[in-house]
Structures are given as structure tokens and as C-alpha cells.
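Researcher: I'm preparing a figure for a lab meeting and need a structural model of a single chain. I don't have an experimental structure, so a prediction will have to do for now. The sequence is pasted below. Please return the structure as C-alpha cells so I can convert it later.
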Amino acid sequence: KALAFAKPGDFVQAKVAVPASFTFAAWVKPARLPTDMAAICGRKGFHNALTIDSRGRYGFYYYNAAKQNFELNSPKVSGPGDWHHVAGTFDRDSGAVRLYLDGELQGERKVSGEPFPYSDDFFIGCANPDSAQYAWWFEGAVDEVLVFGRALDAAEIKALALAAAANGGAS
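Model: Understood. Here is the structure written out cell by cell.
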């Protein structure tokens, strides 16, 4: 059963050790588009997170130890009420940050530096509940949130999206 985030203030917090290379993936169904930006899931502070913006573009943000922010946004726009599989990867060895939507690569860029050494706080439904300015509340449903300790390749991301879709998608 999917997690439902009906209003600002709804979120789930977990402790997740995120290594130098990683993948975040989730099924997402926004109830409405945010006025600016919303964090679907990620490390506290929003900088390493899956997102959606006010235009309905999904994104992946990577923030390095030098305090540089790199973002990718999907060219595909989606409205509220539709389920989508979103995944973001960071591969330390190649420096590649990638964003996938429904198993398809949406963007890629090379970056430098190790991930910023955040705490192990990982949030679903917001970026930082302690910040009035940077909470970035998500309203909608999130299902099958996965964190991998490596950058999955394109075939693995596609398999994740197709496996759930074959089983009726997220619920």
C-alpha cells in the first residue's frame, strides 16, 4: 500500500546510510503540483533527492562535499493523478548523475566530488521538516521507495519500472 501525504507536515523519516555511489527510486502519484518544488524522497536538506516542480517535471538533485548543487529535470511534463516511476543515480567512479522516468533516461551529466556528508536522515514526503523555507512538502502518494548502495544501470532501472507495471503498478 502506498504512503499517502495529504498535507504539509505529513512525512516519513528513516535512517539510511547512503554510500558514495547510490540510486534512489520510487513510484510517485502527485495529488497536486507544488507551487515551487516538492521533495519526493532523499537525504535531509533536499540536495540529494528525487523531486517534482510546479510545471510537473520530475528531477534529481545531487549535492557534493564542495557544496555544489547539480540538478537534472525531465523534459517530460506530467500532471497530478498519474503514477510514474522515478529514479536517480550517482556513480562516483564515472561522475555521472542520471535521471530516469518510467524506465527511460531523461538526462545525464558529469559532476565532480563526493556526496555531501549529511547525516543518515532520509525523508519521504519532504526535504527538511525542521525548515520553514526548505521543507518542500510533497502532496500525493509514494510507493516502493528503494535506496541502493550503487548506481543501477539503465537495464536495471528499466526492469524496476517494468516489474511493478506488470504487477499492476503502484497501489
